[in-house]
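Quick note —
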Amino acid sequence: MRKDKGLSGDLDRLPMLTWIMFLKFLDDMEHIEEERAEIAGKVYRGVIETPYRWRDWAAEEGGITGPDLINFLTLEVAKRPDGTEGQGLFAYLRNLREYNSTRGRRDVIATVFRGLSNRMESGYLLRDVINLIDDIHFDSSDEIHTLGRLYETLLREMRDAAGDSGEFYTPRPIVRFMVEVMDPQLGEAVLDPACGTGGFLTEAYAHMAKQADTVEKREVLQSSSIYGGEAKPLPFLLVQMNLLLHGLEAPEITPDNSLKVRLSEIGESDRVEVILSNPPFGGEEESGILNNFPEDRRTAETALLFLQLIMRRVKRGGKGRAAIVVPHGVLFGGGIAARIKADLLKEFNLHTVLRLPEGVFAPYTDIPTNIIFFDTTKATGDIWFYEQPKPAGRKKYSKTAPLTFDELKPCLNWWNARQENEQAWKVYGPDLIETDDKGRIISCNIDLKNPNAGDLVNHRTPLEIVESIQAKEQRVLAIIGEIKRTLSEMA
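Predicted structure written out below.
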């Protein structure tokens, strides 16, 4: 693929590789379904029809190649492998419709391929790639396991490339920790409204799959457990493939910006029991998106917009719970941020804040982050804080020496038997809300320091001191920005 002039980097190569693997995977699954139907004496109607199945155009090593292959993939009308003229492959796949009203694989395929295009210029190189992919057997559990590990490696490479363009992805230990403490149960719906490549959703699916020990439970797992939203075409394709490889047959991922729905129109039927997410932060949304939020809760900070969306979509009556990764700025922010946090404390039970050290999200950012956990059992009383220690013998985590799940085990052990210690303390949530004499929110600061850390000697290098000053300046500028936006709204 590196030889092809149409592909300039990993962000071009990985989508190409993924859609090719996607179609081979589907054909192998079709073979399994056909065999099951034959044993049962039934007729199986394939998801993809002749001559668009992988076996029709890709499986023969000396099959369609060169310009004919490119034309078959990309043209609306093209010469097909069987010699007839008709829809090109992508045109056919984009227009697939389900045989009945139930959402299934045909809908998933159509949605995926509406956001895809072929980037390879050489049909001969593409044929070489297809021949290699054809040697993968997705109906073999051993090869699926190997491919799963390979695919996660490819995702990490893509994430490294995407990090340069503002994409942030959640490290696997953090994902696993959040899923374990949230403990989604079979029969509950799990949502990630900004799911990226599907880290939270695949982990939640695997967690619930252990509980699906009957045919009926398996059906529940497949039909009403995992939901997501992802607006960008590349991550949308990757999350579909990721979930399919993990065993979810028809992923329910919406290819839209989850913020496009007016907040006031979200009702009980749109709410779910569990929300796990690391929403984008630091970006800005168009004015049309901001209009979906209450006028005094509109902000340029996407993390705060997603926090409001999640608060609205979590199921009420004590059944709903959420775990969200947020930057420090959300915790200390004033103005609109303070009003949103006051809503959180008054309407939900913010029971835990896990404070993460620097470098956990390397190489994407060194911005300090936190995970907030809340549920709908009551209004906030005590808020527990747990400060994850820095790595032993080092100042921070890094890409080459990342956070491991074992380092989170002390917090996992503490979770269900909470006591104050060097890492953990609690405060009374309502005391954090400050109002003026008219009852308007002045501040709601949840960016609290660890009172049990002790007086640590801090011998910092000049570079570290400069970086610390720079971080504080950025915090000041963020606060000034919120003040300016507030004043503009009042004008």
